[in-house]
Each structure stands twice: as C-alpha cells, then as structure tokens.
Records
---
Amino acid sequence: MPLVCQGGRWQTVATPAPPSDRWLSVGPAVTLHGEGRRNPDVRSGDWTATPQDSTSRCRADQSTVVSPGVVSPPQTAEGPAGQPLKFTMLPRLFDLTLSGDCLWTRTSG
C-alpha cells in the first residue's frame, strides 16, 4: 500500500488518490498503475530517479496496453550504481515496478 505523510505521520492510502509526481522506493519493489488502468498512480512523461546512496541502482520495469486485453512484455530501464536514471514512462502505461533506494520525480509530461 502506498504511504502519504499527513500531519507529520506516515499513513496508508486506502482510497484512489490523484497520480503523484514523486515516489520513493525503499526496500521491496513498489508496483504502481499507469494511465492504461483506472485510478492511475503515475502519469507518463519524463522522469528522473535519484539514488539515495552510492550503491543503489534505480530500476523501472514498465508494461503498456497494446490493445484491449493485451499488455506488452516489460521494458526495463536501469541506471548505474549511485547515478541518476533519466527515462520516459510510456503512454498507456499499465503496470510499473520501481526498485532501488531511489527518489522518482516527474520532470515533464
């Protein structure tokens, strides 16, 4: 479940929220939904992932809607350890998995 900071405390988000332009992945991979599904968590466009330490590698695996009921195989973008990753979240994004100790920020759309 995604978490949001409200009143200085982290709380789970149980209802659909508007898509966010910033995500933090820590520990296990985070799976989000894109604009190819109802209630997207993220929007397509240009994004930058910034590692939070010198050993972390930012990785994004994304699948898109090809046609009704058909989803593409995952496409992977991965940066070198300790270096930012610049990539594009694809239009009609179905699922997205973010991994690495990284801050993900949408830079344009």
---
Amino acid sequence: MREREAQLAQAEEMLRRLRDQVAVSIERDYTKFERNQESVEVANQVVLLRQESERLAQNQLGQGPVEG
C-alpha cells in the first residue's frame, strides 16, 4: 500500500511540474505573440507614413518648380 501511495505522490508531483512547465511556455509564447503583434502595428504605421510621403512627393512633382 505504501508503494502505491509513493507512486501516486510521484505521479502527482510530475503532473504539477508538467502543468508549471506548460503555464510558463504559454506565458512566454503569449508575450512573444504580443511583441510580434506590436511590431506588425508599427510596420503598418511605417507603410502608411511612407505612402503619405510618396503622395506628397508626387504632388510636389506635379506642381512643378515654385516661382519666387
């Protein structure tokens, strides 16, 4: 009976460790996901700014030289 109780205790400890490892892994991956999502948002803002810059440059080219 004591041997079975020891095996059960060992199995419960292994289960607790596995749960802890999974929780840490999920937290790490979620943090990585959030960072990547923020990077995508920044990249999208850069694209929008470059598009606006290109539009302004095209407008300036279309107006020709400024006379003074």
---
Amino acid sequence: MTESELERSFLSLVGRAGIDRPETGARIGGHKVDFLWPRLGLVVETEGLRYHRTAAQQTADGRRDQRLTEAALTLLRFTHAQARYERDEVERTLRAVVSGLTTE
C-alpha cells in the first residue's frame, strides 16, 4: 500500500530499475518511512510539497534522518520533481546505491 501518487510513481521507478520491491510504510525506531529494503539497510523517502513544506515538517524530517543514520541505514531522498521529470537519473541512482550495498 502507498499513501500518495508520488509513492506509486516511485514504485514504478523501482520496477523499471529492476530492483526488488520494498516494504512500504514501515516503522523504524518509531518513525514511519516511505520505502524500506531491510536486507540492504536502505530507506527511501519521497518528498512532495504537501508534507515537506513548512519549517516544522523539515525539522521533523531532519530528526528522522538523524535517527535512521544512527541506526546505520542508508537514506535517499527524492523529490516529486525528480520522480516525475528525472526518472532516468532516479533509476540510475537507485541501481548504483543498491549495487554498492549488495557488494559490501
């Protein structure tokens, strides 16, 4: 299940990149994340303007990012514009990061 059009769009990019489907809406240390690949220790957050616009929301995002980093997870963020208009670049980044995590 996904919560937004942006998240559904991102999942289509994951499929196009040939990457295993992630868990969606997983909880890590009390924080909900958009996408999680537990075996890889990879988290992806997608940022639409609806939930990432205000200073308070950005501060909360930063705190969550810090907790995820403390947990030794790799975190990627992609904006709505990237998922919509830079799809090839997002796919390239995903493949490169996943490749690096699977060879460690």
